[in-house]
Design the sequence.
């Protein structure tokens, strides 16, 4: 009877949400150093192409529960004085980021990032500086900053069921805070990468 249940479970179809949940585990395992970049790409492709539960389970069987038990990333502090700072590609987003910038530009690109928790609080103190957040379709952004001679431009609609929320607070003087989705070129590159893996 137990074998029959296991066999039925293995043949169950999986949803997009389940595929994305496993993809998040894979990204976190790579961020922890348990997977190399080549293996990360292969496993992400397999996870996103999985049709049944057994297909999906096979992708993460050897990872155990380490990803779920992973400690939260340490808070990040970004200090920029007259120079640009970028955080892009695969990275683990801590629950708190502090950005202190003067006459600088700061880019935080969450497109390929893994969130340590259910979101991130970004505390800013910007003087004559710009902060650009790039968030994928399943990430929500909430900006509530004290402004002096500056602009706030949020061009993203809130998803119905966000995977994570990025909240921005603090002060901005003679600068700007912008939130965007990845550009069409970037989205096309990511789609092509997924297709070549599949």
Sequence:
């Amino acid at each position: 009877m137990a074998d029959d249940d296991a066999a039925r479970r293995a043949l169950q179809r999986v949803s997009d949400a389940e595929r994305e949940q496993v993809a998040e585990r894979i990204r976190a395992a790579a961020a922890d150093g348990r997977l190399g970049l080549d293996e990360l790409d292969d496993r992400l492709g397999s996870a996103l192409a999985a049709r049944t539960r057994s297909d999906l389970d096979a992708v993460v069987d050897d990872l155990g529960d380490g990803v779920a038990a992973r400690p939260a990333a340490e808070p990040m502090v970004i200090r920029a004085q007259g120079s640009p700072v970028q955080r892009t590609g695969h990275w683990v987003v801590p629950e708190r980021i502090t950005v202190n910038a003067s006459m600088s530009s700061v880019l935080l690109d969450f497109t390929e990032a893994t969130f340590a928790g259910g979101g991130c609080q970004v505390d800013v103190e910007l003087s004559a500086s710009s902060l650009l957040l790039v968030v994928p379709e399943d990430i929500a952004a909430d900006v509530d900053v004290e402004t002096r001679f500056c602009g706030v431009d949020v061009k993203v609609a809130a998803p119905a069921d966000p995977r994570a929320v990025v909240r921005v607070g603090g002060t901005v003087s003679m600068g700007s805070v912008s939130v965007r989705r990845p550009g069409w070129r970037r989205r096309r590159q990511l789609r092509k990468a997924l297709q070549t893996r599949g």
Remarks:
- Helices lie at 2-11, 16-31, 37-49, 53-60, 184-197.
